[in-house]
Amino acid sequence: MKIVAKSLVYDANNKILILRRSLTHPNNPHHSDLPGGEVDGNENEIEAVAREIKEEAGLDISVSSLKLVYEKTISEEVKHVLYTTKIDDSEPLVTISWEHDAYTWKSLKDLKDDPLPQNVDIYYLTVLEYLNSTKQI
Prior knowledge:
The structure is a single chain. By secondary structure, the chain is of the alpha+beta class. The longest helix has 13 residues, at about 45-55. Helix content is about 25%, strand content about 30%. It has one domain: Nucleoside Triphosphate Pyrophosphohydrolase, CATH 3.90.79.10. The strands form two sheets. A four-stranded mixed beta sheet has the order 4-1-6-5, sandwiched between helices.
């Protein structure tokens, strides 16, 4: 089963790091995204999330700071897992990878108010589902 693990990265003001996929990204270019990705065969979910946050945003996150908050089986072949972590800085500088071309720090209200693009990434919908289920949005 393919596992996709991502994280809501909160800053000191409870804003969430949102990445924008680059135009050349193979899936849903120019759509909103969170740091994370597929779990490699030689790592567990939490290690994958910490690695992806470093690769995609240049942020060093301790594995111990990551908390699993949501899991959803999409099909027999795919499972989504969502973690959260908090950074002590307000809107820290992010160094994005080739997969993304922009980033922003958004409040939960702004995240809710953002219009969803056509054919939005299914993982992003999973995140919004989680946020709605916790009454955080």
